[in-house]
């Protein structure tokens, strides 16, 4: 797999499905960049750039062809109007993410992100709901066993699935962890397959 980071708001007019673009959105600091870097096997370093959208490149073999895959990382940006001006136009699939230990980030999914994405890309765009930091579910049960207490409650799978059903997300509700790498490849692959089918 080759990787390359591109500037924000790059356009790609290819419509022949030799390339696809996947956009990853959600609140600040929930782990969006981490899943991209885990997928691309890049070392994690905190974001040092101001761009709202940045593109990373990968290649995936599909039915004997090499497909270029653009992974658009995002940051909520300084304001919603600024962000809305800059949405990439060539997106095939969107992953709306939240952090499993942060209920507020799930609220943003249904109060903000799903509406903004549908307003921008229309109702035919495949949009997945993805819970990030799933490793903390295990961490929680571990620390319960050793009497260390958390003062927060995880978003339960059933709560996320209710949102997924209510807002008509695409495919299945998915969870992954950049920390223990579980399901990251599966999440990106599901987005890729949806992009190839749309
Ligand atoms: N436990 C755990 N921590 C994670 C995981 N993914 C990211 N983090 C931590 O969450 C913090 C933020 O991760 P980022 O990937 O930079 O989050 P982001 O959504 O890209 O942040 P912004 O670009 O600022 O919006 C970092 O300190 C990571 O170490 C994960 O899967 N599990
Ligand atoms: Mg980031």
TrEMBL record:
Which GO terms label this protein's molecular function in UniProt? GTP binding; GTPase activity
Q: What SMART domains does this protein map onto?
A: RAB (SM00175), RAS (SM00173), RHO (SM00174)
Q: Which UniProt keywords apply?
A: GTP-binding, Nucleotide-binding
Look up the record and give one Gene Ontology term from the biological process aspect.
small GTPase-mediated signal transduction
Signal peptide segment: none
Query: Know the name of this protein?
Result: Rho GTPase
- The record lists the organism as Larinioides sclopetarius
Q: Which lineage ranks, top first, belong to the organism behind this chain?
A: Eukaryota, Metazoa, Ecdysozoa, Arthropoda, Chelicerata
């Amino acid at each position: 797999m080759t990787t390359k980071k591109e500037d924000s708001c790059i356009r790609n007019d290819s419509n022949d499905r030799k390339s696809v673009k996947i956009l990853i959105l959600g609140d600040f600091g929930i782990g969006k960049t981490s899943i991209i870097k885990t997928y691309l096997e890049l070392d994690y370093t905190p974001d040092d750039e101001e761009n709202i959208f940045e593109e990373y490149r990968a290649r995936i073999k599909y039915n004997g062809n090499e497909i270029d895959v653009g992974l658009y990382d995002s940051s909520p940006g300084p304001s919603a109007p600024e962000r809305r001006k800059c949405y990439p136009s060539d997106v095939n699939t969107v992953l709306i993410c939240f952090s499993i230990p942060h209920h507020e980030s799930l609220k943003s999914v249904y109060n903000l992100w799903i509406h903004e994405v549908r307003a921008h890309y229309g109702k035919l765009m495949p949009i997945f709901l993805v819970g990030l930091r799933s490793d903390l579910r295990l961490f929680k049960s571990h620390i319960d066993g050793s009497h260390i207490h958390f003062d927060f409650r995880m978003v339960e799978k059933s709560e996320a699935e209710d949102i997924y059903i209510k807002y008509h997300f695409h495919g299945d509700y998915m969870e992954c962890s950049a920390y223990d790498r579980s399901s990251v490849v599966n999440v990106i692959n599901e987005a890729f397959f949806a992009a190839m089918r749309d």
